[in-house]
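Course assignment 3, question 2. Fill in each field.
Student: A.L.
Task: Predict the tertiary structure for the chain below.
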Amino acid sequence: MLLRFDNVSLAFGSRPLLDHVSLLVDEGERVCLVGRNGEGKSSLLRLVAGLATPDDGTIWSRPGARIAMLTQDLDTVADACVRDIVEGGLPADSGEVWETTPRIDAVMSRLGLNGAAQFASLSGGWRRRALLGRALVGDPDVLLLDEPTNHLDIAAIEWLEDAMLSFRGALLFVSHDRAFVNRLATRVVELDRGHLSSWPGNYDDFVTRKTLQLENEAKANADFDRKLAEEEVWIRKGVEARRTRNEGRVRALMAMRSERRARRERIGRAKFTVAEASESGKRVFEAERVSVSFDDHVVIRDLNLKIQRGDRVGIVGPNGGGKSTLLRLLMGELEPSTGKVIRGARLEAAYYDQQRARLNLSASVQDNVNDGNTFVPIGGENRHVSGYLRDFLFRPDQLRTPASALSGGERNRLLLAKLFARPANLLVLDEPTNDLDLDTLELLEERVADFDGTLLLVSHDRAFLDRVVTSLLVLEGEGQVQEFIGGWTDYANWRAARPHTPAPPREPASSRQSETPGVHAKESTLPRSRRLSFKEQREFDSLPATIESLENDKSELERAVADPAFYQRPQDEVRRALTTLQSLGAEIDAAYARWAELEALRG
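Answer field:
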């Protein structure tokens, strides 16, 4: 065991963030902490790092264990060169220069860092890489990552995933990147209304089980409230209560009242829609031999591009590769160095910029949305601004708060509220998922997927890209922009199959076939068919029953661990059950793989 919380409590004012929680983290675990914005996830990491102290309870870490943390805040490090920033993560007992220099060089090389660059001059993504290097260079036993994928490009995220998969210590991280969580997490711990619950498996496993638990919780609450209402009717009769002298029933009612007052209702889910304007013209954007240069640096070179009404285009590439520049070029905020950009007719754009420049930070929350008006016109109806903002999870007491006082996630929700208050037929989103909690992110994904207009999306969120775009513009460096039909996974699979070949250009719309251009099947690596041996045939025949038995055992154990009361059992019993659940999952995967192998041999 590396880390343990015993009965830990922490409050922010009168609001409890942690309410007598317990937590165990073992060596080799990769635990993702999830929960709504403002629930206290970052505060919990600060407790682990020793940057804050609990109001009650104890936090234990194994003696001598090194704990390192990557924070969300990019402005906490003093001005220095990148090498000094990374070197600052070495522990005091790390040894002589000749021992530590190769370690520093290896970390900076893996992250692509220039040691001589000034930290203050870096973009947000490169600052994040430098601070990540600072956290990794000390070879910690416990590594804490708070939204580590924010501001990283996809290549850096994939490198980070590989690095974390080979990390020998324990990993405790907060992330809204579902692909990142699915690849890394061995367990998900949810912080919900001050309480922690543990869910074995990755994020997709957590969603399935959590949905079932919430349904059960809602049913139990409804049953409780119905019983409470019945008892309230009984107690109001008064005379009957006194005549029967049923003091036990009266005490039970008092206890039920106390329990109902103590219940912390789950925060509502954000709910919003994208108001759609009338159709734009068929041509939305057309670029003819466009280039963009800054001094001697070519960002976009000789681009020819057509985007038509209804196209859903993702823009991907390395940080600093020109993704935001391409958006600004298409939107008319930047003139090309050579060539021309033609914009279509009747365009009504909703433009989300990652710098949130379209927010007036000195204005109040409500004035950012309605320019001082009491009502917001939504879908042909006037809605009161407070009701509209409630859909985006803003409390009434926040309406007159300056936007500058909001957290990063709250500012993102406010910008979404501002954008979606106006009809649009063109949705332009530049890194919209940063700082959003998972519930809000998934709702945004649903709404964007349902949008019938034209979409331009810059994102490093691979799951988001897969679900909402149908083609990609890939910025490959040196000003090259390639078109690719399909989502991120299609492109990644094609790239893995042909690592040294650039993505082929998209075919003209008139010549597209029903298949997906640019996505090529790998040559089959399955074994040639033959007759199974007697032993193999017996194994093949028995595998379906084996798989069914394993899945039944797994389902039964999943139902047990989905019950919050399960985690009140002795910690050794909980740990054994979670380990067994992981083992069952691995056995089922292995059984399916063996079945597929024997099936292929049979032909």
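Instructor remarks: Residues 534-602 form a domain with the Helix Hairpins fold (CATH 1.10.287.380). The longest strand covers residues 283-294.
Grade: pending
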